[in-house]
Write a structure and sequence with these properties.
With 237 residues, the chain is of the alpha/beta class. 41% of the residues lie in helices and 12% in strands. The protein contains eight helices and five strands, in the order ααβαβααβαβαβα. Strands 1-2-3-4-5 form a five-stranded parallel β-sheet, with helices on one face. Helix 5 runs parallel beside helix 6. The protein is globular.
Length: 237
Amino acid sequence: PRAAAALHRHWGGFVTEEDLDALRAFGVTHCRIPIGYWLLEEDPASEGFLSGGERYLFRALAWMKRRGMRAVLDLHALPGGQAANRSSTGRRAAQAGFFRDQRRFSQGKDSMRKLAHLVVDFDNNVLTSGVVVGVELVNEPDWSYWSTSPGIQDLFTEMIPEIRQILRAQQTAILLSFAGPTMRSEGVEWLSSKRLAHPKEFAGVFYDAHISHAHGDDDAAGREWSPEKDSCKTCCR
């Protein structure tokens, strides 16, 4: 009960209408909202997580609609973790268990299907319709699993056409996050070839580039923070 109460306090005040008003005042029109796979589970407690987050997601989307804003829902954490040593995957682990455990891999694909159907539910509700304009099936998967089986190519090749059957390209983009410079080039070339070979299934599928100062120029040897250069930077540009 104490953990649940703490999370509800966090969810209740983490994003407010005033925050969205401030973003709109700065000219922000779209938000990328990260969610964990457990939000889509019937029994998240069996995974070590608490339920209840969906109502706050719905509330945020309803607030965004009132302000003419749009959202991308990012499946930020997959079962077992899609990358090693990342707390953002829900549970920090020494290995990317999502790609190393077939059960977890199947469970994660099911989470993607549930996310797509959740978007349909949001679109069928007058309070949130039209707000979600994109989904990201997985955030920054470990590039070392690009060609393995199961792996990233297997995942995208199977799931993108399936998700496209649920979410129409005219309404909902599918974003692919390719992490690392090698993956950016090879992954983008792969996506380009898929779009040419399967234009219907891969319509509205785009590359989502994540360029983070926290893991780039600011960490270079001898690099010092400069107010002239750095004060206007955000974490990602």
